[in-house]
């Protein structure tokens, strides 16, 4: 059997069109299966909220690590990275190539570069840190590891909490663990780049489409959620709508705003990942055209 080419990584901010481009790229290349690198698409019953691939997409191209976990279960990037590694090994044994797609930075990192040797998450410590306000977490991280604080996205509570966990559990600064991690990606990586105005328009349409598709009914039907699932983008805004605190139009705008803020943080992370090749996507460019551009780059 011929050696299987290395996995392909396709990233981009929320709303950039990664999922549809990944489908087109998988069809174009053939012999490819998609592995999700999304922190929340792992959960069953949250498919609309998390924009998880639908049944048509999964019939067209096999997908992995989507809609397999109860929302009451906790999850983290290390477990996701290890499971993705096992899946990619199994795909290679069957002569299939992995196309990893998603926008959750740490999840992409752990799949592309291997799981960090840093201490795994502690549910007890994570619960305590999650209960603290962001400014208190930032202050503590700055005191314990000033250099680590400078390279942590301090506007993102999840990243600040994880940085504090590593420092507190490992007893060493973040730089120690970065020095011991793999620096070379397993395969080529690409990131979709859209102009801000274009991305914002797409995000607004996505928020409206999410509500029209029944996201409020989906959220209303959810039971107990783990601390991980509780962080799903849009959950707080839809709950406010269900409580009657906002109208449907106000909910859509709140969803759009929260998503734009998240996309801005994603773009900041993506710019730091110099192993990713930027793929500019102009307004009106089809997913098939973008996929062809990526395929041409891969096949050079």
Beta fraction = 5-15%
Q: What is the arithmetic mean of pLDDT? A: 92
Shape: globular
| Percent range of helical residues | 40-55%
Instruction: Give the SSE order as H and E letters.
Output: EHEHEHEHHHHHHEHHHHEH
**Are there runs of 5+ residues with pLDDT below 50, and where?**
none
Supply the number of helical segments. 14
Number of extended strands: 6
Taking the alpha carbons of the first and last residues, their distance comes to: 23 Å
Which structural class do you get from the secondary structure elements? alpha/beta
For the CA atoms, what is the radius of gyration? 19 Å
Largest sheet, spatial ordering of strands: 3-2-4-1-5-6
The biggest beta sheet reads: 6 strands, parallel
Short characterization:
With 300 residues, the protein is of the alpha/beta class.
Q: Key features?
A:
52% helix, six-stranded parallel beta sheet, 300 residues, alpha/beta, 6 strands
What does this protein look like?
This protein has 300 residues and is of the alpha/beta class. Helix content is 52%, strand content 9%. It has 14 helices and six strands. A six-stranded parallel sheet has the order 3-2-4-1-5-6, with helices on both faces. Helix 2 (55-60) links the parallel strand 2 and strand 3 (63-64). The longest helix has 25 residues, at 248-272. It is globular and about 50 Å long.
């Amino acid at each position: 059997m011929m050696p299987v080419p290395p996995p392909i990584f396709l990233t981009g901010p929320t709303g950039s069109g990664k999922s549809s481009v990944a489908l087109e790229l998988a069809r174009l290349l053939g012999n490819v299966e998609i592995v999700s690198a999304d922190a929340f698409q792992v959960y069953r019953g949250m498919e609309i909220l998390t924009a998880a691939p639908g049944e048509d997409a999964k019939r067209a191209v096999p997908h992995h690590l989507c809609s397999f976990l109860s929302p009451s279960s906790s999850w983290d990037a290390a477990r996701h990275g290890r499971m993705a590694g096992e899946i990619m090994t199994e795909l290679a044994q069957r002569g299939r190539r992995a196309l990893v797609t998603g926008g959750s930075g740490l999840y992409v990192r752990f799949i592309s570069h291997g799981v960090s040797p840093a201490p795994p998450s502690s549910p007890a410590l994570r619960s305590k840190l999650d209960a603290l306000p962001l400014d208190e977490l930032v202050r503590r991280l700055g005191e314990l590891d000033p250099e680590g604080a400078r390279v942590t996205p301090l506007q993102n509570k999840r990243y600040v909490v994880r940085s504090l966990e590593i420092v507190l559990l490992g007893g060493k600064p973040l730089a120690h663990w970065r020095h011991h991690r793999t620096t070379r990606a397993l395969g080529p990586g690409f990131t979709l780049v859209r102009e801000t105005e274009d991305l914002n328009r797409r995000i607004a349409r996505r928020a409206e489409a999410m509500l029209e598709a029944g996201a409020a009914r989906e959220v209303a039907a959810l039971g107990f959620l783990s601390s991980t699932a509780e962080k799903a983008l849009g959950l707080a805004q839809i709950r406010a709508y269900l409580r009657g605190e906002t109208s449907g139009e106000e909910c859509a705008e709140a969803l759009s705003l929260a998503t734009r803020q998240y996309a801005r943080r994603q773009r900041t992370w993506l710019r730091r990942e110099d192993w990713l090749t930027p793929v500019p996507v102009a307004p009106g460019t089809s997913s098939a055209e973008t996929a062809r551009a990526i395929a041409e780059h891969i096949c050079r």
